[in-house]
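Archive entry: two folds, one per protein. Generate the first.
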Amino acid sequence: QVQLVESGGGLVQAGGSLRLSCAASGNIFSINAWGWYRQARGKQRELVAIITRGIINYADSVGGRFTISRDNAKNTIYLQMNSLKPEDTAVYYCHAATSWFDYWGQGTQVTVSS
């Protein structure tokens, strides 16, 4: 089992920055992919950024503005979000995958005002 707890969401003006954190606990050694997803109201959940075996990929819509990183000592992953736009407004979810299971955090709301 893996537990994921996100923090760091909130309300920010367009052009501002936020950093999301996701603290992991449990059987983290079995995780082979870490990521952030988001779901805007009325839309499907979409991938934002992912780390898989050291390779990082971003959605085209956030490339150059968002940065995913991991602190192994703290068992925490981060999503640094800069130059935020109103269309970035969504609930952001931390995700971890093993070879057998997917784990999700509870989600944190990010709201970007214009």
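Generate the second and append.
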Amino acid sequence: QVRLVESGGGLVQAGGSLRLSCAASMTSFSSYSMAWYRQAPGKERELVAAITSTSYTNYADSVRGRFTISRDSAKKMMSLQMSSLKPEDTGIYYCNAKTYGYSYWGQGTQVTVSS
């Protein structure tokens, strides 16, 4: 059974930083592609950043240069370092894991950026 637990969300002023973490339970973590998605109020869920099993990374244009995704296979953890935060970064951030057609989600963590 795959379980993903996010942490690190909170309230921060514009220009500040936050670090999100995702703790994973699966035994073959290193074979999964991992990603962060977010959903703002009234909007659809969108991809923020992704990292493959070989640590290739991809970012949404809106966060490139401000956010950094990383993974630690030994600890079964994925992180998202967010800097220069903007009010439009506000939303629920979800951890996602994908492998061989299966997709798993965490429960989400709230990030609120005040202006």
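Annotation attached to the second fold: The longest strand covers residues 91-99. The two ends are 40 Å apart (CA to CA).
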